[in-house]
Amino acid sequence: MADLNTSLMLPMLVQTLIICAWTFVLGGTRFVAAKSREVDLREVAKTRRWPGKHGIRSDSYDNQFQMPQLFYVACIALTLLGAVTPLAIKLAWAFVILRIVHMIWHNTKNVIIIRFLIFASAGIVVTWMLILALMAAL
């Protein structure tokens, strides 16, 4: 069991494993689409865009390399500063849960305003974590 100072490692690892899992899902669906000729790979190579649902999945995957970077910085900073608190741990798990919900929503319903609200909520959480780290550094 992790002590308080390493408690942010688990949510960070879970967030990273979500990206790994999505990599395999994306690769598998692209392989099937290419093999069945559902997608013209020459067009994908020319436009650098996957069509339809494959494009949405690609956008969702790309999104996993944006805001989570701030999350990793916040977790590492809080850990190195010895500023991991129960609040920081709750915020970290809230961020991971919001990212999972965002990814599922993006790839199913994809109602933009709802997706934005989920995204913004995760942004507020990670900003709060960064402010906690900044306060600990001062």
Approximate helicity band: over 70%
Per CATH, the architecture is Up-down Bundle
Number of domains: 1
Residues in β-strands, percent: under 5%
pLDDT < 50 runs, ≥5 residues: none
> What is CATH's topology name?
Four Helix Bundle (Hemerythrin (Met), subunit A)
Count up the helices: 6
- Sum up the overall morphology in one term: elongated
Mean of the pLDDT scores? 94
Q: At the first level of CATH, what is the class?
A: Mainly Alpha
Distance between the termini: 30 Å
Biggest β-sheet description: none
Number of strands: 0
Radius of gyration: 18 Å
**Secondary structural class:** mainly alpha
Order of helices and strands: HHHHHH
Would you give an account of this structure?
- It is built from 6 helices and no strands.
- With 138 residues, it is mostly helical.
- It is 78% helix and 0% strand.
- The longest helix has 27 residues, at 9-35.
What structural keywords apply?
0% strand; mainly alpha; 78% helix; single chain; 6 helices; 138 residues; Four Helix Bundle (Hemerythrin (Met), subunit A); elongated
